[in-house]
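Before relying on records like the one below, remember that each one covers exactly one chain. Contacts with other chains, cofactors or solvent are not represented anywhere in the record.
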Amino acid sequence: MKKFNIRKVLDGLKEQASSSASSGQSGTQENNLMQETLQSENFQLCKTVRHGFPYQPSSMAHDPVQKILAIGTQSGALRLFGRPGVECYCQHESGAAVISLQFLINEGALVSALADDSVHLWNLRQKRPAILHSLKFNRERITFVHLPFQSKWLYIGTEKGNIHIVNVESFTLSGYVIMWNKAIELSSKAHPGPVVHISDNPMDEGKLIIGYESGIVVLWDLKSKKADYRYTYDEAIHSVAWHHEGKQFICSHSDGTLTIWNIKGQGKPFQTITPHGKQPKDGKKPEPCKPILKVEYKTTRLGDPFMILSGGLSYDTVGRRPCLTVMHGKSTAVLEMDYPIVDFLTLCETPYPNDFQEPYAVVVLLEKDLVVIDLAQNGYPIFENPYPLTIHESPVTCCEYYADCPVDLIPALYSVGSRQKRQGYSKKEWPISGGNWGLGTQSYPEIIITGHADGTVKFWDASAIMLQVLYKLKTAKVFEKSRNNKEEKQNTEIVDEDPFAIQIMAWCPESRMLCVAGVSANLIIYRFSKQEITTEVLLEVRLQYEVNDMESPPEGGGGATPPLPLSFFLSLSICRVRSTPLKQSPGYQVDLVVQLVWVSGEPPQQITSLALNSSYGLIVFGNSNGLAVVDYLQKTVLLNLGTVELYGSNDPYQRQPRSPRKTRQPSGGNGKDCYQDRKQIIIILSFFTPFFSPISILFHCCNSPTVFRYCMFVCCVYSLSVCAGALPFCALSSTVLLSVCPPRGANPLDYRDNSFSRSRSSSVTSIDKEAREAITSFHFCETFARKGDSIITPCLYVGTSLGTVLAVALNLPPAGEQRLLQPVIVLPSGTLGRLKGSILRMAFLDNTGTFLPPAFELWYEPNAVGADSEERDKARKRRPVSVSPSTSQELQESQYAVVCSEKQAKVIALPSQNCIFKHSITETSFVLRADVVQMNIGNCVACFCANGHIMTLSLPGLRPLLDVNYLPLTDMRIARTFCFTNLGQAMYLTSPTEIQRITYSQETCENLQEMLGELFTPVETPEAPNRGFFKGLFGGGATSLDREELFGEMQAGKASRGLAQHIPGPQGLEGMKGAASGVVADLARARIALDERGQKLGELDERTAAMLASADSFGKHAHDVRKRDITL
């Protein structure tokens, strides 16, 4: 029987009373507040664009006239690429893998075949492609698809060895079927295997070559419905390619050989080549190699043909990377790839298969990259890829999204990022250049920042639904590399395989200050500079601070313990900062490094929250133990407290004391007993100069916070004076490392676990026996520090995992030199309020409803000299003035704090600290991401819940404006990377390689059609190759085939009903021609109309001629009848 708990009943009554009081108070306050401008009609949710490399690609196709590329994936997605900035994403509803793609060349349509044996026709003449027809096979599995150039009949090969023919216009099956038992010899009893290749002879459309997996190739005569020739080889076939003259074809086999056959020679292959096999001297057959998965045979008018193949390497090349081989004349080039090859295509000058191909590039689709090779230049250089396909270069670990950035920010990042580009690319323009850009009016700058597992931070220009990399920062350069495998093994016990992985980022676009937190419990603060510098002095300040945290001392541990050796403390850091001079290129340059170290044998907890304020010169970070405030201007730690100490004597929770237990010892250390329960500050200074050997000083002080701050300041000044000969602090070019360990709470527990099973209290008034309270969010602001204050002051608001919002007052010295000399005073000032669930976001509004952004400092060149340095000093002396609330006496409240947690949102009036609005966001789920965002005509709260709902709430009334069940949470990647930003934009990592951008703004949704690019543009099809006088006189040129007569219902009959099911789309092929939109589409429609008009005029002429002929016949017949009557 369930135990009855009177406390929960009382808590429920209290909650009801407080909610009713809050709602009543809300009603009285609502009339006094500002008018809300945002309404539900201002919001609409839709996807905008997807960026990045197609995840798990499976197939590829290219339109040589339109110059667009299509890539299919194993999840049924289609990605289409034109010129840089023209991209499109489509999705098959079934989600089955795309096994083959075929363009209707220069027709604005695409055929896709899926692993679920369905075939689809896509209309590409509209900005968002749609399916026109679908055909689902019921009895046979599709293995190969071929669509000849300028043909409407699609050949489909199956696993049973049969070939079916589909009319692309109506998507109906023809009664013409090539059965496998008729294609092979009647004497052969074995099944030839699935169809692996179908193609028609370039010079004779009536001849079809069929390749079977077992090694049999059949030349089929479509008119006579029988096999002309059969070619047999002992090894399995993977692909077949024609010579453009149609007299030879080449096959690739599973033993690494290529066989070249004459179409009239059935016995043996004309030539057998083993590109990577060792040729024995005794003339025997070469040793078998790996299978050649694909081969293409392309001819040139003035030179030797190209044979391009993937695979075929020797088995003894263990560990060799995948290769693409280019054989041209007597030369053979082996091009190594970084990832396995999925498919490749050769780009040629002509779409006609019966002409000299003139190949100029090869598109290679890899598992995680897209490479285009220039065949026209020596050495086969690759083209510089203009698409944003390197998002996954290292796995993405976190993202940030900023809209409406300063206008000079993107040019500044591009200028320093352009110097990072690699050299040696092809000098030609990118060959995939089809489509047209959109004509949207959205012009505000947008920037996406991605943090990666290897410590890289990438800045992307995301303006106008495009994406382009601007700048790449490598944070791992700050740290030393592991010297031996032993150290690496020790590190893997502490962190994951990527010790430099970025976990959280904080960025100030106005000042360009950047702070990143790594998975190894370190912080790196960067300044942006356009000048290159070399850090000549590297100062390390390792600080450890522990307070009495209710841990019982070990038995018998009463005596004093001697100091530990310095090497022990140095071994406790996971990542060690470089001790050699660091050359820093223009861009982001290291200003300060903060490293958490071990405490009492326990590794540091990962950082869970981070905030930066450039106006105050402060960084604050927190974890599951507490928080630390760092002054990055003075290089000092201002506050280092556990979460419990922020409450002071007003802690509302009864926390269980931690029981004594044996301390865990980090690998490599041997000071277990003497390090277990020390209550003191330990500071280790290690500074390096070009003239002195490394000097290390170990300080032991008491655990008083006042002495702690004073000792920190004195040590910094002392070390700088020793290193630089008592030069002024601001004149040094130095990188500083602060190693801090906040005090521990209770049992170590990673707050950001990989599941959503962690408990969440349903009532914040319950007497929870929680010993640990993690820091989950921060917000710098200028507001009222305490209840009833009359003036606003710089403050830091802290949110915890138990739903508490705490205020910390900041007393800053005047700007200028005094800011660098006088200490910053940090003082906890009490509790603002409590909510259900962890605090996710905090923001402030003034009494008119205007969003109050945190104060910031405008960017200045930190390494300026001469006249520029004077401007820098003037800029540093100016402290930005925040927007002050109105001094009108009519309004009782001057500011409103907006607080959002995992369960609810509140609006609190300041300085009275009364809750005027409260809204329960979700009861059955919890909020993963929440932001207070600025729209064009107002502000709102945007939330993304774990159940997939995206919601917006009005401000300050917290009225629901939007609630859409958009995306059910499938993995932690979405929760880790989902971001809201201003002006109704959001994004998340939809796969390990792709970013999906969405909008919840009605205005953006309405303008999206204009913003999207167009894939199809009206282009004239090149003229067919000239047959020449003698070929036209004596024959020998390409012969055409009337496929309509051969495959039509009149000649071939109807197909079996149960073979496939036709699923019509929303529009037919005629509808496809008129579905395009925009100026380019109008031209296309005009062209189509002219063609149709000409066709109708031609039909009218034919009818007129027929009527004249009929009249003549009637006249002759009447004349004959008259003559007969006269005779009679």
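Residues 197 and 211 are 5 Å apart (CA to CA).
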